[in-house]
Amino acid sequence: MTDALGLPMTVPAPGLPAHVTIYEVGARDGLQNEKGVVPVEVKAEFLGRLADAGLTTLEATSFVHPKWVPQLADAAELVKLLDRRPGVDYPVLVPNDRGLDRAIEAGLDHVAVFASATETFAGKNLNRTLDSQFAMFEPVVKRALDEGMSVRAYVSMAFGDPWEGAVDPAQVAAVGRRLVEMGCWQLSLGDTIGTGTPGHAEAVIDACVAAAVPVDQLAVHFHDTYGQALANTLAALRRGVTTVDASTGGLGGCPYAKSATGNLATEDLVWMLDGLGIEHGANLEALVGTSVWMAEQLGRPSPSRVVKALSGG
Ligand code: HMG
Ligand code: MG
Fold first, then answer.
1. Which among 87, 108, 115, 190 could bridge 156 via Cys, Cβ 3.0 to 4.6 Å?
2. How far apart are alpha carbons 4 and 22 in whole angstroms?
């Protein structure tokens, strides 16, 4: 590792937060798009390694319809196998009441609903209209809160949609505002197909803030399809966002969005945060080791530049 050489050199820049929370989505977003189903024991070991690497928020899986996402049909079994660590949160995706029932049965405390900013993707991903998705989420959020759970919300297609093209930031903010009004504590802005650029990231964040979604309730979720994820993240940090979604090894995608590729790689994010002197709590060497191990399980190398550079791959 280059650590011993003092690299990356730490050079703080003004206008950035002192600490960033990494919201790790590798086990969920990362593995939902795999061609094959990753064995449940491998998933459990992946999550164990991520906790060992110091990550404290690990989105573990989804309680969605198993026919819609067969890759995560083993959600209940995975939760049973998990060696749940104190101080680590294991949120899961739940789209509806049935999903919430299953998350409660599994003994989980943190769930996330996932909305669409566009009509077409609401249909393709949720089998709902843009408007009727809220009727599906409302009872889920209410009951989860009554159960003492925390509920995060995503807004997908926040930066562009492969069927509809450009998406108005005001539309993203309006969808996000409704989810925050329901009681979701955090809103993650999803660049599902990775077409956003830094000025665009600022515009979407500004639109949310203008719609009365406080910046400290925002998170960003950039897929790296066009190589913009890290630049967009820096723009979001400058706007005051302090939670960044990332996927170890840069795994990821969405089975219902053509042209969605991997998420921002956690290792690439950590390299940048280290260079900027921003605290994050993760151990880069352990993350890279995990990605090298996972690449062996999946039979292909990690797309992360930092993993490649540090593993000699
Ligand atoms: P539907 O077909 O409209 O469901 O699908 P339904 O409500 O009509 O129910 C039909 C049957 O499915 C019923 O069974 C239900 O019990 C069952 P029957 O009575 O016919 O025997 N069912 C379920 N079974 C297990 N678990 C459940 C469940 N729900 C219903 N939760 C539904 C609607 C929302 C369920 C479906 O569209 C679905 O599962 N979609 C999930 C798609 C998905 O997971 N996409 C990937 C995640 S989103 C993403 O990746 C983007 C993100 O990363 C951010 C970004 O990048 O932008 C988050
Ligand atoms: Mg995603």
1. 190
2. 24
Please state the atom number of ligand 1 nearest to the C-alpha of residue 95.
Answer: 34
CA triplet 225, 229, 234: central angle to 5 degrees? 170
For residue 254, indicate whether it is catalytic: yes
* Residues 251, 262 contacting (CB under 8 angstroms): yes
Q: What is the pLDDT of residues 85-128, one digit of tens each?
A: 999 999 999 999 999 999 999 999 999 999 999 999 999 999 99
Angle at 153 between CA 151 and CA 159, to 5 degrees: 165
Are the CB atoms for 202 and 189 separated by under 8 Å? no
* Inside any domain, residue 4: no
Residue from 171, 169, 229, 221 nearest 198 by CA: 229
Distance 253 CA to ligand 2 centre (A): 6
Domain ranges, residue 215: 21-311
Catalytic residue among 254, 269, 270, 306: 254
Q: What is the pLDDT of residue 257?
A: 75
Q: Reply yes or no: is the peptide bond before residue 8 cis, omega within 30 of 0.
A: yes
pTM, to two decimals: 0.97
Q: What is the DSSP string of 13-28?
A: -TT--SB-EEEE-III
As for ligand 1, residues whose beta carbon falls within 6 Å of it are: 29, 32, 62-65, 68-69, 93, 95-96, 98-99, 102, 114, 125-127, 154, 156, 190, 192, 221, 223, 254, 256
Q: What is the CATH number of the domain that holds 108?
A: 3.20.20.70
> Structural domain tally of the chain?
1
